[in-house]
Specification:
Rossmann fold, 353 residues, four-stranded parallel beta sheet, five-stranded parallel beta sheet, globular, alpha/beta, Oxidized Rhodanese, domain 1
Length: 353
């Protein structure tokens, strides 16, 4: 009965989570760790929906039942015949209705103690949204700040290696957070998937320990950072990385080296700055690309675009930048980044001593 169905709180009690929605629905977002075994694929779902609207619900249900039966039989033969009798799967669809109910009924008839998620993906999604409103308030964020090229993401990675709690927003968003932040051959996730990843990361953190995060804008590429999380980060303690422009240029030449083999992509991305810089400046940068004069291009981008943008935006958005902890770096090589991470951890220990 519905009142006895498992909820999102029961996910860990099951051996496997099966999403029976269509591949397109699954790709948009799904419960972490779930496998996709659609009882109707994308074309079949559209076909049944069309029959439902244009012919009748009865005819749609007949066709749908036939297709669902065929697909469940296929999944049984191809994926589940080796499962033992005590295997306990959790099955869900969009609303916990007929699609997941069909597979659950058959699995239970076989003898597996299958569960049907109450409310399906819709309830799961509601849970994620609610948690993203509540969870950020449980944590104290230490925010790694600094102008473009300060190796902030690398420092977060070094902090992770030291066992610290890190929320790496750019990695979750598959984007470096600026006009040139697009990662070739790595498309960004959907907004729903991004929020699922955020919920998953925040749920794993210990509220008694700090969470390190990079200073970001509200948008990372196409991804929007949830408001409650953004507000909490902007009120966090700021850790300012202070490195000379020469070190930042050298770091960026390595960090963005993939653009050097894709000059057309780089020129396309630079074109997005046309409303922020003069046509003359933009043409000069394009000329640097054609000449492969990468150091001059990077330095001018920092001095004429990114650094002024940083000065305008960061100090007005992050309250902790009024009195930040400053970590001076003469170099941003791997050893220097590791040393910066060590110093950041030690600063926290000094505060709590």
């Amino acid at each position: 009965m519905k009142q006895n169905r498992p909820t999102v709180a029961d996910l860990a009690a099951y051996d496997e989570i099966i999403d029976v929605r269509s591949p397109a629905e699954f790709a948009d977002d799904h419960i972490p760790g779930a496998i996709n075994c659609p009882v109707l694929d994308d074309a079949q779902r559209a076909q049944v929906g069309t029959i439902y609207k244009q012919v009748s619900p009865f005819e749609a249900k007949k066709i749908g039942a036939a297709l669902v039966s065929e697909n469940i039989a296929h999944h049984l033969k191809e994926r589940f015949l080796d499962r033992p009798k005590n295997w306990k799967p959790l099955i869900y669809c969009w609303r916990g209705g007929e699609r997941s109910g069909s597979m659950t009924t058959i699995f239970r008839a076989i003898g597996w103690p299958a569960g049907q998620l109450d409310g399906g993906y819709k309830n799961y999604r509601r849970h994620v949204i609610e948690q993203l409103e509540l969870l950020p308030g449980q944590f104290n964020f230490r925010v790694v700040c600094g102008p473009t090229g300060s190796a902030k993401t690398r420092i977060l990675q070094a902090l992770t290696a030291l066992g610290e709690q890190v929320l790496d927003l750019e990695t979750l968003a598959c984007h470096k957070g600026s006009v040139l932040g697009v990662l070739p051959d790595q498309p960004q996730p959907s907004q729903k998937t991004f929020e699922t990843l955020l919920w998953q990361a925040l749920s794993a953190f210990d509220p008694s320990r700090p969470v390190y995060v990079e200073a970001e804008s509200r948008k990372i590429g196409r991804m929007h950072v949830p408001e409650a999380l953004m507000e909490r980060i902007r009120n966090g303690e700021c850790l300012q990385i202070d490195a000379p422009i020469e070190a930042r240029v050298e770091f960026l030449l390595g960090d963005y080296a993939y653009f050097f083999d894709r000059p057309a992509l780089l020129i396309e991305r630079l074109g997005h700055l046309h409303s922020l810089v003069s046509n003359e400046t933009l043409q000069r940068w394009v000329d640097f690309v054609h000449a492969a004069d990468w150091p001059t291009l990077v330095r001018e981008l920092l001095e004429q675009h990114y650094d002024p943008l940083y000065r305008r935006s960061q100090h007005s958005h992050f309250t902790g930048l009024q009195q930040p902890l400053v970590f001076a770096q003469n170099s941003l090589c791997t050893a220097a980044v590791d040393a910066a991470a060590q110093a950041i951890v030690q600063s926290r220990r000094a505060q709590t001593a």
